[in-house]
Write a structure and sequence with these properties.
Helix content: 55-70%
Largest sheet: 2 strands, antiparallel
Number of helices: 8
Oligomer: single chain
Strand order of the largest sheet: 1-2
Structural class: mainly alpha
Shape: elongated
Order of helices and strands: HHHEEHHHHH
Radius of gyration: 23 Å
Strand content: 5-15%
Number of strands: 2
Distance between the termini: 32 Å
Length: 183
């Protein structure tokens, strides 16, 4: 199961109309809001958002006002009427994509970010011994995750194979995996 989802063009269009009904926004603000509301599952690219905004503008549903060198998009009266008429059809696109991923995946992603932040703190403030210990903890965590995928025995029940000096691989990685050298 992948974490990020690729959405259809119609979903981007619907999401932009629903968000612009709330308040005017710039393109970047629209992308950020969609990512936030989908709990990070849906991060629309500029290559999908700006063409959709241009199409909505061509259709007379959206207008772009430039202030201080930035385009601020808002619904026209026709756009407001369109959203009102198609409320049920437009739905709430970011909710559907978040539900497809599940809480477990979102919680795991958040935990990975927290571990990354803690790792950076150890790198910035830790002693050399603390950095070495953190490296050991992370290497064991990586091996344990690969064991989960392999349905292998729990860590500690079987000795893990040693990698050659300078090689970050442990023997627990899937076939074809080539870990970057920690060097």
């Amino acid at each position: 199961m992948g974490f990020r989802k690729r959405m259809r063009r119609g979903d981007v269009r619907a999401a932009l109309l629903v968000l612009l009904e709330e308040e005017p926004r710039n393109g970047y603000g629209l992308m950020q809001e969609l990512e936030a509301r989908s709990q990070g599952v849906w991060r629309p690219s500029p290559g999908s958002v700006y063409p959709a905004l241009a199409q909505l503008e061509d259709e007379g549903l959206v207008r772009a006002d430039e202030t201080e060198g930035r385009k601020l998009f808002s619904l026209t009266d026709a756009g407001k009427a369109h959203v009102d008429e198609h409320r049920e059809e437009l739905g709430v696109p970011w909710e559907a994509v978040s539900e497809d991923v599940g809480e477990g995946a979102i919680d795991l992603r958040n935990l990975v970010w927290q571990v990354g932040a803690a790792t950076m703190q150890v790198l910035q403030a830790g002693t050399e011994a603390q950095v070495d210990k953190a490296r050991e903890v992370l290497a064991e965590a990586r091996r344990s995750l690969y064991r989960i995928l392999a349905d292998d025995v729990p860590a500690g029940d079987e000795p893990a194979g040693e990698a050659p000096a300078g090689d970050d691989r442990t023997g627990d990685e899937p076939a074809g995996y080539d870990a970057p050298n920690a060097g």
